[in-house]
């Protein structure tokens, strides 16, 4: 396997002295930037400002990108299964990237790219440092093999052939509803419109069926005229198995026609030669490919000479063809249908792959059992993948579409649903893997910084809510398994860095509480309690002076060891110990619960008294070392109240004073939110380019006190981070703002990120930090959680909703331990109606928490589960009306829970 050119962030920042600017000539300041007035939050200055702020709350329409607006070039939606490699769907429906062959490259386009702006002319930037942000890869430039679809129409003595790409159609529309894209091809000169739905099976809670290495294309041909049309659809795929080693190993490629069950297609394999490598099948990129259709009258051609024009529509006579690796070999699968006037026909296709030889490193850091892909346990080759999908096509498609429709059937804005959910696509990139042993493993971003990094992935909230089994496995097998030491410390990169990071340690304890909550019972907590307790005690032990504020210098996510009492680390550790307290209470470990309670009370009080400067939280220097080493000190740091943000994700209540938390968030808005990052970077040098000229965002640290050395007395390479604009941190702040009622600011910040990733600028499905599809960006799901006011505790059978806006007419999806569905609440004639409807699986409940809509007096409560009236008790605590059922209730699809509150 090739040398992947590992380059540290230290080298990048110290050598290049970047100013965080770029694309200056092509991106202009957003029209709404004038509305943003840092200082007192968002100001609705005048009619334009009021209108724009209001628009952020509006449902609006599905996010759609158009050929006519030149918005398709950079689109790359992940359409492979989770942990199955990285495969992109382009804006016009063609596949690109093809990172399914275990190359382990760093970044989706591992090249040093030019940084073309007036300040950095002639400089280059690496993948892991923002190359894909500055120079977004174009679909047409990153195509490893040939693939596509073409349509032949025969009608009224005419024959017309059009490929399904943007060059052949008057208009192409891409609906960006991850995990299902809908692409519509229209042309006024043709009698039909074509609609492609493309996706990989995606079923929340079901990691196995969401991890299939396959892409489904449902291609619908709609006859909009008054006469019938004969439509022939040809799908083609190049046999490029072993694309990197095939020629070197002197193998041949073989394409074979097959029909099995409902699937008809071409199966792509390798053939050894007498003079070739006799162990070629052990090469990292060895495997198989397959293209199939479910069409009843399908035919195939195992080798076409030309993918242009009529040759695509000629059925072949040979059942197999073999060619040398240096020769191009393309097969086609052809479906034919008669489309009556005003009717439509849908032709389904399946593209599958099987590249089992995944190995992360060549130094044997990982055990042998962790080499290879998990899907190799389920399928022996790509043909088996295709035939499995074909045999289960209806269920896999319907469940995927059910989730997509459940997610978007909401009163929340389409753009907000997009941005808070889309980063789950990182799981369907080569950021995230599942080894043959079943173990889940991740880089920080594609091919960069290995080992399930605790101080990065603890920010991510999406995986735990959508695929909780993945996170439980990571806690048990890694954090509480190979990484846990006798003193309770957790190695922060598994086998790859044998030391703890203090923020990652706290995040993993908090994660244990979340994983317990997203379980059906207390088995996870019981089985792991002794280890969780040890990890929690490790945090307590890092408080050297016993004031409840951690002060032991340990690694943190800014790649440094800071001295002193640091508000963001102190608060995060307090939140973790509070989670430890609640777990101890559930385990009836009264002594440890008391230890945690004392620590939390002392720490919260001292943080309030000693780390708040009257406006925001600070870093109190070590009394001996002072400000000798790097730190945030009196600056305004983006994560300063991260502990309270985490607390809202798992229902811990307050761990940091409310007034001080709000003041700190307002200070972040005042000092750290920047209208034009390009202009900002002109005078704040050293950061990497994650926001450019004309783009808004929140930077890591600012210096409100105008100190000459705000980050310590010694210049260090890590100081470059302080001037960066990284979306994962921004999402964390946005989720906290949303929870605290700063909904305007939360939406503006989230929208700023959304606009930075508009398809006219770069790939909207790839938020970038240290390489592509960065794990921390899944903090975005936390903003969705807090917008719904959602809390859940599976073992207790308790769920809660408290929407932050549109309380009188609100609908949003939810996920739980065994099921998912929708929550709706409405106000009607002084009454409040709430409906909890399971769409998939089941939901066991003992109680539900609601907030009464203003104007509703819940003097009477009526609760129905399906057709059964329930006996309930109600109590009010901290603004929540808790409705407790007299016996456990199991909700199933078709039998919703309906609650009516009224006078």
Automatic annotation (TrEMBL):
Q: Which residues form the Glycosyl-hydrolase family 116 catalytic region domain?
A: 503-781
Has keyword Signal?
yes
Record flagged with keyword Amino-acid biosynthesis: no
Q: Which residues form the signal peptide?
A: 1-33
Q: Which Pfam families match?
A: DUF608, Glyco_hydr_116N
- Mind listing the UniProt keywords for this protein, alphabetically? Signal
Locate the Glycosyl-hydrolase family 116 N-terminal domain: which residues? 76-395
The source's superkingdom equals Bacteria
**Entries under PANTHER family matching the protein:** BILE ACID BETA-GLUCOSIDASE-RELATED, NON-LYSOSOMAL GLUCOSYLCERAMIDASE
Q: What is this protein called?
A: Twin-arginine translocation signal domain-containing protein
Please report the organism this UniProt entry assigns to the protein. Niabella pedocola
């Amino acid at each position: 396997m090739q040398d992947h050119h590992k380059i540290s962030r230290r080298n990048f920042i110290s050598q290049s002295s970047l100013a965080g600017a770029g694309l200056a000539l092509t991106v202009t300041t957003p029209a709404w930037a004038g509305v943003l007035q840092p200082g007192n939050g968002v100001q609705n200055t005048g009619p334009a400002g009021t209108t724009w702020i209001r628009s952020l709350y509006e449902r609006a329409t599905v996010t759609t990108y158009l050929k006519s607006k030149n918005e398709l070039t950079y689109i790359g939606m992940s359409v492979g299964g989770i942990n199955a490699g990285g495969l992109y769907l382009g804006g016009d429906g063609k596949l690109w990237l093809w990172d399914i062959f275990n190359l382990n490259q760093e970044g989706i386009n591992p090249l040093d790219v030019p940084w073309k702006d007036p300040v950095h002319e002639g400089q280059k930037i690496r993948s892991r440092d923002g190359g894909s942000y500055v120079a977004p890869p174009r679909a047409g430039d990153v195509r490893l093999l040939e693939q596509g679809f073409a349509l032949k129409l025969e009608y009224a003595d005419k024959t017309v052939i059009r490929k399904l790409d943007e060059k052949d159609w008057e208009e192409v529309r891409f609906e960006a509803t991850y995990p299902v894209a809908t692409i519509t091809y229209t042309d006024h000169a043709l009698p039909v419109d074509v609609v492609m739905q493309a996706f990989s099976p995606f079923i929340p809670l079901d990691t196995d069926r969401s991890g299939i290495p396959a892409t489904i294309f449902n291609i619908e041909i709609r006859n909009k005229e008054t006469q019938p049309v004969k439509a022939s659809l040809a799908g083609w795929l190049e046999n490029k198995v072993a694309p990197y080693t095939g020629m070197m190993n002197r193998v041949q490629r073989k394409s074979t026609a097959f029909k099995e069950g409902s699937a008809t297609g071409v199966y792509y394999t390798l053939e050894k030669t007498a003079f070739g490598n006799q162990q070629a099948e052990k090469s990292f990129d060895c495997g198989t490919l397959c293209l199939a259709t479910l069409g009843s009258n399908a035919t195939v051609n195992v080798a076409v000479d030309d993918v242009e024009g009529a040759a695509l529509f000629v059925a072949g006579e040979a059942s197999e063809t073999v060619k040398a690796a240096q020769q191009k070999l393309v097969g086609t699968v052809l479906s034919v249908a008669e489309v009556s006037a005003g009717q439509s026909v849908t032709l389904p296709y399946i593209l599958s792959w099987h590249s089992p030889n995944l190995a992360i490193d060549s130094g044997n850091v990982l055990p042998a059992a962790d080499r290879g892909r998990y899907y190799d346990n389920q399928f022996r080759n790509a043909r088996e993948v295709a035939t499995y999908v074909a045999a289960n096509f209806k269920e896999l498609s319907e469940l995927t579409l059910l989730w997509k429709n459940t997610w978007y059937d909401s009163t929340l804005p389409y753009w907000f649903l997009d941005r808070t959910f889309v980063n789950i696509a990182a799981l369907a990139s080569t950021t995230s893997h599942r080894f043959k042993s079943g173990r889940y493993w991740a880089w920080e971003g594609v091919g960069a910084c290995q080992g399930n990094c605790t101080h990065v992935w603890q920010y991510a909230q999406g995986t735990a809510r959508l695929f909780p089994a993945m996170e439980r496995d990571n806690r048990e097998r890694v954090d509480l398994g190979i990484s846990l030491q006798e003193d309770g410390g957790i190695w922060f990169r598994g086998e790859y860095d044998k030391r703890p990071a203090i923020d990652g340690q706290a995040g993993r304890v908090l994660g244990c509480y979340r994983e317990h909550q997203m379980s059906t019972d207390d088995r996870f907590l019981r089985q792991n309690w002794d280890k969780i307790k040890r990890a929690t005690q490790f945090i307590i032990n890092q408080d050297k002076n016993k004031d409840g504020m951690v002060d032991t210098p340990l690694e943190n996510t800014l790649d440094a060891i800071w001295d002193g009492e640091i508000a963001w680390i102190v608060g995060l550790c307090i939140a973790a110990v509070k989670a430890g307290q609640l777990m101890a209470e559930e385990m009836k470990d009264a002594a440890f619960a008391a230890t945690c309670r004392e620590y939390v009370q002392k720490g919260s009080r001292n943080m309030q008294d000693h780390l708040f400067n009257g406006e925001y939280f600070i870093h109190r220097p070590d009394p001996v070392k002072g400000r000798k080493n790097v730190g945030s000190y009196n600056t305004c740091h983006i994560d300063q109240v991260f502990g309270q943000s985490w607390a809202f994700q798992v229902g811990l209540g307050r761990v940091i004073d409310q007034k001080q938390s709000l003041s700190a968030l307002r200070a972040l808005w005042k000092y750290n939110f920047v209208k034009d990052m390009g202009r900002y970077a002109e005078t704040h040098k050293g950061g990497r380019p994650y926001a450019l000229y004309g783009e808004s965002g929140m930077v890591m640290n600012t210096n409100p006190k105008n100190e000459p050395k705000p980050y310590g007395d010694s210049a260090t390479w890590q100081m470059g981070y302080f001037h960066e604009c990284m979306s994962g941190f921004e999402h964390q702040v946005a989720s906290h703002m949303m929870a605290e009622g700063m909904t305007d600011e939360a939406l503006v910040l989230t929208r700023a990120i959304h606009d930075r990733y508009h398809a006219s600028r770069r790939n909207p499905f790839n938020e970038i930090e240290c390489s592509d599809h960065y794990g921390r960006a899944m903090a975005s799901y936390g903003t969705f959680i807090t917008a719904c006011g959602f809390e859940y505790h599976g073992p207790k059978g308790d769920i809660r909703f408290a929407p932050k806006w549109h309380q009188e007419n609100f609908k949003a999806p939810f996920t739980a331990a065994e099921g998912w569905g929708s929550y709706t609440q409405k106000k009607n004639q002084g009454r409040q109606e709430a409906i909890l409807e399971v769409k998939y699986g089941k939901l066991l409940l003992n109680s539900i928490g609601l907030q009464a809509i203003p104007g509703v007096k819940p003097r009477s409560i009526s609760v129905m589960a399906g057709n059964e009236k329930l006996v309930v008790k109600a109590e009010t605590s901290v603004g929540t009306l808790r409705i407790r059922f007299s016996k456990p209730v199991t909700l199933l699809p078709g039998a919703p829970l309906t609650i009516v509150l009224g006078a």
